[in-house]
Write a structure and sequence with these properties.
globular; little secondary structure; about 130 residues
């Protein structure tokens, strides 16, 4: 069995670390509280992942698959989620201020209490701002 030990200070992970975890995962990833700020996670499949209270400030998630993911209380401020698949994702109390969601698929995503101030919602699918 491959060693999945990732020694990082303060729960910091890199793109390579996440790819390594995805490659051996037999169930959705648990990245609760992890620091991925500024990390490029474009086009990665994080379906069903638990990212509760994770820090993805300024992260790049262009075309990432986050369908069914737990993104509650996550910090995605300034993140680029253009073309991302967020179908059925839980974004309860998420901070998406200044995030770019251009052409993201938000069908069935839950945004209760989410902060969307300054977010770019150009051509999003499945979301109608109140």
């Amino acid at each position: 069995m491959e060693d999945l030990t990732i020694n990082k200070q303060e729960n910091d992970l890199t793109r390579a670390d996440v790819i390594k975890l995805i490659a051996v995962a037999t169930q959705p990833l648990n990245l609760k509280g992890i620091n991925l700020s500024g990390v490029n996670l474009s086009k990665l499949d994080l379906s069903g992942a638990n990212l509760y209270r994770a820090d993805l400030t300024g992260a790049v998630l262009i075309g990432a698959i986050l369908s069914g993911a737990n993104l509650s209380s996550i910090d995605l401020s300034g993140a680029n989620l253009s073309y991302a698949d967020l179908i059925g994702a839980n974004l309860h109390l998420a901070d998406l201020s200044g995030a770019d969601l251009t052409k993201a698929n938000l069908t069935g995503a839950l945004f209760i209490g989410a902060e969307l101030t300054g977010a770019n919602l150009t051509d999003v699918i499945g979301y109608k701002p109140e």
